[in-house]
Amino acid sequence: MLVSTISDVLEGKALRVEELLSEYYGPRPYRQDAYDQDILGALIATVLSQHTSDLNSGRAYRNLQETFPEGWESVAKASQVKVADALRSGGLADVKAARIQRLIKDVTSRTGAASLDFLRSWNDEREIVNYLRTYHGVGPKTAACVTMFNLGKPVIPVDTHVHRVASRIGLIGAKVSADQAHDDLLKLVPRESAYSFHVHLIEHGRSLCHARKPQCEGCPVGAICNYYSAKYYAD
Ligand code: SF4
């Protein structure tokens, strides 16, 4: 069947991309994120990382913890102004303060506690992602990041680097959205390679496959990249 043939070709290509990037950047075995002790904290940290650098969001997260040492319940009960003040270094402080307070309140009212650590006992990564996405302000990338980095499950968060690199190489169609790409990419790689594949694509997007000027000369995956073929071998 033509459909299975195309998907077989894409799977083979994804495996080859992972091999080549692994040779170029080195192996990237799973490493638990720093927030792994507290899943709600990890979700809050990931919300804070939206639209800002890791440096700024990390600073905002630490400041939030220092301002509210009693725990997440105290963040939910505080005035929005006080929470926003603690988040100033992370950008969009007012929006993120409101979002985080609502998140903690929603988690508490639905589960009876300001904690998501019960998710550690869930086995199905798709159920975890779908559950996290039921919370306001938690999109597919945020849910996938917590599920992969903090719960160690095989999903592929798609940020701007992963989306751009996968699209240029031809692992996803040019019109496939980042939201759709989460599922499409996951079908192409073995479960045990999902983390490494994600990290390699981000590394490649940051190092060579830049948004404006990709450094295709000397790129380790140039020989199997659609963008490269179109650029250098087009009639
Ligand atoms: S060949 Fe160019 S476009 Fe393709 S992955 Fe490498 S840097 Fe990106």
The biggest sheet amounts to: none
Q: How many angstroms does the end-to-end distance come to? A: 31 Å
CATH superfamily of the largest domain: Helix-hairpin-Helix base-excision DNA repair enzymes (C-terminal)
- Overall morphology: elongated
Number of strands: 0
* Beta-strand content: under 5%
Count of helical stretches = 12
**Could you name the ranges where pLDDT drops below 50 across 5 or more consecutive residues?**
none
Could you give a short description of this structure?
With 235 residues, the chain is mainly alpha-helical. The protein has helices at residues 2-25, 39-48, 54-67, 72-77, 80-86, 93-111, 125-132, 140-150, 160-169, 178-186, 194-207, 226-233.
Your description of this structure?
It is elongated and about 60 Å long. It folds into two domains: 2-30 and 156-233, Helix-hairpin-Helix base-excision DNA repair enzymes (C-terminal) (Endonuclease Iii, domain 2, Orthogonal Bundle), CATH 1.10.1670.10; 39-139, Hypothetical protein, domain 2 (Endonuclease III, domain 1, Orthogonal Bundle). It starts with a helix and ends with a helix. It has helices at 2-25, 39-48, 54-67, 72-77, 80-86, 93-111, 125-132, 140-150, 160-169, 178-186, 194-207, 226-233. Helix 1 crosses helix 11 (194-207) and helix 2 (39-48) packs across helix 3 (54-67). The longest helix has 24 residues, at 2-25. The protein is mostly helical. Helix content is 60%, strand content 0%. Iron/sulfur cluster binds at residues 165, 168-169, 208-209, 214-216, 219, 221-222, 225, 227-228.
